[in-house]
Amino acid sequence: MNFREPNVAVERILLSRTDRVGDLILSTPAIATIRQTFPQAHVTIVCSRYNAIVVEGSPDVDAIVCIDGSADPAAFGARFAGVDLAIALAPNSADMRLVAATRAPRRIGYTYARRYLTRLVARRWLTDILVSDADPAMCEWQTQRVVKHEVDQVLELAERAGATSLVRDLRIVVSADDRAAVADLPADPIVVHLGRRWGERGSSKASLLQLFDDVRALGRPLVATYGDDGAPLAELVRSSGVADRVLGGLSFGRWAAAFERAACIVTIDTGATHVASAVRRPTVVLFEHAFFRLNSQEWSPYRVPNAVLQKPGTDSPDALAASRAEIVAAVSRLV
Prior knowledge:
It is a single chain. This protein is of the alpha/beta class. The chain has two domains: 12-161, Glycogen Phosphorylase B (Rossmann fold); 176-334, 3-Layer(aba) Sandwich (Rossmann fold), CATH 3.40.50.2000. The protein contains 13 helices and twelve strands. It has helices at residues 21-37, 73-77, 93-100, 116-125, 136-141, 150-161, 176-181, 205-216, 231-240, 252-260, 270-278, 292-298, 317-334, and strands at 12-16, 42-48, 63-67, 85-88, 106-112, 128-132, 190-194, 222-226, 245-248, 264-267, 283-287, 306-310. The strands form two sheets. A six-stranded parallel β-sheet has the order 3-2-1-4-5-6, with helices on both faces. The protein has a six-stranded parallel β-sheet with strand order 9-8-7-10-11-12, with helices on both faces. α9 (231-240) links the parallel β8 and β9 (245-248). α1 runs parallel beside α11, α3 packs parallel to α4 (116-125) and α8 (205-216) runs parallel beside α13 (317-334). 47% of the residues are buried.
């Protein structure tokens, strides 16, 4: 069946992405492309309760259905029998099994080149299986390998479904109420998003506090944001007085609205990186030393001014000082 043919009716579409918040953000161009390609269709997306916040209020989907972590993907997917098109937006077996159970005439997904067993089994689950070369081991020893950004990998699924005109912007909903809730933040601050990895392997708590002092020299207000895993560091930053504001417990929309006010965002977390890209703010991201080649290509800031940096491979004072200097220089260029 060829969905490029105008006489092919697609009335019901199921999309599935049940993994991380950041990955669903990177799937929003493909979701918007599906909506644009099949404007008359009813589009349902299956998400986890954790990542569904990304598509709440989205004009590109008609229904959001959440699956519990304990649910069997195949049994859950069977509830959607009768859809015309089903796409697993995540390259994992759970989403592919869910899509397979719909028995849609067209079932599309992708996996990685070296996941040989998944590739074999997926031939039974899907009518169309795409293969990505985004593999950590291959990137390490094939140093000239160019890996497509995850946005582009997922957009290929929409192309396989019949899309000829692609939407490339990340799309999240930030409401007027979200913006009003953070309107008291300083204007054009540098926002540092706190996460657990600021305190380990190529960084340290002391170095993080020094980073705030170093960035302060750029003359802009400093705001720290954090989620659950950054709470201990947030308390340290708050008690040390190195930031003008420390914000946690934010809804997804308010977190995005806080980023939207920033002159630049500094993060060590890919989820925060993708939120920053969605609100089109300059971003400095510090990736882990291991598998830097893959991570810096597949999950880099998308279509915004950015600097992609590598954490040091050692915790020596000299290495940490050099890393901080690199971050400050990158922020200085972007603001």
